[in-house]
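Supplementary Text 2. Reproducibility record for the structural model of the 320-residue chain.

All settings were left at their defaults, and a single model was retained for analysis rather than an ensemble. We include the record here because the model underlies the residue-level annotations in Supplementary Table 4.
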Amino acid sequence: MNGRHTAKAHGDPYMAACIQSSGGSCSGGSNLEFNTTEHYFYGIDVPAGKTFLDVWVFDVGFYDRPDFDTETGDNELQFSTNGGANTTITLMSPDTTPYDHLDNPVHCSLTVNSGSSSSTYRWEWQRVCSQIPNPATGTWVVKVATSGNIGGTNQYALLANTSGITVSSMPRIYGINDMSIFTNEPDGNATVWLAKILPVHAGKKLALRFFDPGESAPPATMTVQTPSGATAGSCSWTSDNGTSGSSCVITTASGSNSIFNGDWIDMIINIPSGYTCTPSANGNSGCYWKMNLDLQQSHDRTTWSARVIGNPVRLVPNAP
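Retained model, structure tokens:
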């Protein structure tokens, strides 16, 4: 996620307070999509009968790297001179309102100020809090928030671990409603899981949103895939830049241009009326739709959301 004084066009539409940034402060107008509480939510589904829960975070703090290719690629970026934002991770336990993650009880929290405790957190996995014995069954919620009138891009990763791990009883961790991701592979092809779409959604529409995709050396494309890995069959999309199309393969960089810099793409996918899928052994991966990213020298943050029209869903499984 990005700090509030990072330009919106760097790929995080919700954490940037302004359209542009200069010298560590905002300029160029305010961002109407700014999330004033500056956070993302993740869910961790914990099966019954577990004797412990561990939640880990990798490289939680902001530690400025010399470039995007070094370690996680944390960077002050060209328009930020005051360093990166402070980061707070809050772990919340399940409650009796599973479709409202805003009111879950706080179990613990961890705050790492920009650049601090590097020997503990930089390029290291650390527990968010002590190991939790006999965790409550249900959805634990992780809130990751930034603070401070500073910018930069902070990359981190989350991991959940419990007792008795088998294919059928793994904890599942996923973004709730929206998720921002960062790609800093010099060259490559990656497949990102988008949403769990069950046969009950046959005949409905999958709505996807992508902000600022494809800042990569050309050529670059993104392709919507069904759970089998085949290219989806019926797509239409529009972008803030005035372009549109009916292909499930979108060219995001061509010639010398990143086509959708600072723009949203809204895509509608018609889920076939005869759609079916076979859940894998753990009940998950066999029904996930995916996005294949073919990128060249990518240093790109994008922000994603997914829902089935008429049904509330998360990026990965169901949601408020």
